[in-house]
Amino acid sequence: MSGPRSFAARRLLLGAVQTGAVVLLVFALTEALPGDAAVALAGDQPDPARVAAIREAMHLDRPAHERLADWAAGLAHGDLGTSLTSGRPVSGYLADGFGPTLLLAALTLALLIPAGFGLGVLAARHEGWLVDRLISSVTLAVYAVPEFALGVLLVTVLALKLAWLPPTAVGYGTDLLGHPAALVLPVLVLLARPVCSLSRLVRAGMVDALASPYAAHAHRYGVPGARVRYAHALPNALAPAVQQLARTVDWLLCGVIVVEALFVIPGLGTVLLDAVAERDVPVVQGLAVVFGVLTVVLNLGADLVAHRLTPRAAVAA
Is 209:232 a contact under the CB 8 Å cutoff? Predict the structure, then answer.
């Protein structure tokens, strides 16, 4: 057990270092943003005295290292800061946008796992046949289309020309679950590229496993083909698939800004865009740290699961 425990300890230590690096990087990047929040809050024709008073009230006149220390201390106690424009806690913005983003992510994952594994297994089972070539060609073509272009195409055809679905979520607010038709197009756009990459990973893992000596040995001993495929070949595709799923979940929770903006969904991506437009630095910093920590945690979990599924990796680790 020392091997798995040592691997987990190293990954946890690495995750802690990465989290600290995320905090430093987010602070440095927001410090480098153009413009001045105090000037933006002072109005179109800001008075220098008013700008100075706002800067003092927001502690923007203090040295950067002191503000970093105070901010990091607050993060350690769960305080993400306070919005400069509204005076609301940043955690309130996070709570407002998390529901729609989580709903989109959950629906996408619920469809992604069976579709990705199903297409990958189907292609591997018929390697070199028409079904395999068709799945490979279609997934490659779909993966090459950017989310924005695919979203515009689906809106144009399914919403504007055929009028089957609403083009955006305008008017529904955060009650998207009560209006499922407004979720169809965003989920289709979010699902398109991940299902292509996941199915190709599963196919490649299964094809390599089926071509390995132990699969041929199992066939010689009369092991049924289905058992070789699903009990021996499929598990070899699970480790990279789990890591791909972790990256997909990270993207769904932290990187769906384009889709949320296109379909006017009030999720975390929209909250972040609005904060950047208003130069609301604490909101940008708080959301960026949450996104960064989610990325670290999800990839850490994926590494531990993948290591558990493929214990031979302990040798390389």
Answer: yes
